[in-house]
Amino acid sequence: MEDEPASFQLLADAPPPPRQPVELGMDLDLRARIRQALVCPYCRDEVERGAESVGCVRDGCGAIYHSECWEECSADHGSCAVFGCSSQRAAPLSSAGYLLRLLRLLAAALLLPPRLVAAVEERDGGEGLGQQIARLSSTAFPSLDPSDDGFLKLAAYLTTSCMLAFAGIPLLEGILPPGFPSAMVVLAIPPLVLLGTLILPGLVAGALISAFCLARALVLGLKGERAALERGGGGTVKALK
Ligand SMILES: [Zn+2]
Ligand SMILES: [Zn+2]
Fold first, then answer.
1. 105 contact partners, CB below 8 Å, separation of at least 6
2. What average pLDDT does range 82-107 have in this prediction?
3. Is 120 a residue whose pLDDT tops 60?
4. Ligand 1 centroid vs 77 CA: distance in angstroms?
5. In a 3-state reduction of DSSP, which class is residue 61?
6. What is the DSSP letter of 5?
7. Confidence at 145, pLDDT banded by 50, 70, 90
8. Crossing angle, helix 95-111 and helix 27-37, to 10 degrees?
9. Is the dihedral of CA 202, 203, 208, 210 positive or negative?
10. Could you say which ligand is closest to the alpha carbon of residue 88?
11. What is the distance in A from the centroid of ligand 1 to the CA of 73?
């Protein structure tokens, strides 16, 4: 580093950069957001592909540095420069690792709108998505509570009803003689509808629970990328020691 970065000072009181809602089709905005998330917190330049770089290893930090910058930064700060992060270790980023980081940033920006993240994070608090799903499944199955045990029972219930439905098809074919009068088929509809009514809430609840679990895995798995996107431009750095 030839000169001291101008913005290298305690900026803890500065307001965080405004969050930009990303919608599909806003290509320029998305590109700008990704590039901001790739800014080195030390020199405030984008870490470009092919440059020797390292990534802070703390789960949920998501900062990447030029290798040289990290050397100077850990000498100056004794740790990662991102405000609130005290990690003393960073791991080298290979070109494949850099590409993976790009893809993860893209996934975090495109798949995780703030509303979804808030819904997942509120799971244990107010009326989040989790509560809604729990409420839905306990409405569909009043005897099941949304505990782990309840989900086990739900899985057993789903498996049994699906097996019953599949077993019913050849059974019906075996029972019906060839040239079975079509009027009689009408009589078979009520039991089928009954069976469908039994299965449908289970399928809906199962699909919702799967979607929620997937969203939760994404929100937790892309924690560092979300943090880097939210900070933008390298974020607020700590004061020099
Ligand atoms: Zn740098
Ligand atoms: Zn860090």
1. 34, 37, 38, 225, 228, 229
2. 93
3. yes
4. 14
5. coil
6. -
7. low
8. 130
9. positive
10. 2
11. 9
